[in-house]
TrEMBL record:
The keyword Transmembrane helix applies. It comes from Paenibacillus odorifer. The chain crosses the membrane at residues 16-35, 55-74, 86-109, 121-138, 150-169, 181-199. The keyword Transmembrane applies. This is DUF1405 domain-containing protein. Keywords: Membrane, Transmembrane, Transmembrane helix. InterPro entries: DUF1405.
Amino acid sequence: MICMSVLDKLFKHRGIIWLLFIVNLLGTIYGYIWYGNQLEFTAANFPLWLLPFVPDSPTASLFFTLALLLMLFPPKSYTGNNVRELIEALAVVTSVKYGIWAVSMIFAGGYQGDILVWKDWMLVISHLGMAVEALIYARFFSFRKMIPLALFWTLANDMLDYSYGIYPWLPSVLNDDVTQVQYFTMALTVFSVIVAWLFSSRQRPVDSIYQFKNRF
């Protein structure tokens, strides 16, 4: 219990939150750049309204980055708090989902003969980090009432990905396993929602973030 209390204070420290905000912001920007070729391909071959549904992992990272920003500068209005809770729900559900999904696809490709290079290991570490940090901070969020909306968004994203073929480009050795990948992806959505529910708090904790909001 003492150890958990110390860790809670560490993760709720504004300096740590600022550090994670910067890291996630830079990772989000890099993620959208990473998807540049697929975004260009989608823009040239599909309706433009599908573009926001192409870069799954960077969008998950963007949600988490915004959730951290709203921890640093919490809204004061009822509407603002509802928006905050929706962003938190999307942040946790999608970060857990796409963190696990990306690592699973990389290792599935490796199992089928794809050669893993340093970029693959970089992606493994960064995406595992997405899932872990989302679970850590889920305890400090209060978003349970928004989980149904997060589930709807994520399932809708799945349906668009595999109905239109705009899912993240897979290792070439998995191109004949798209149906299995689709089933795994949708199952992972449900799993991530359950995990988000279990890790979330019913009520937002009162802590030093709000008591000392002007310290940094």
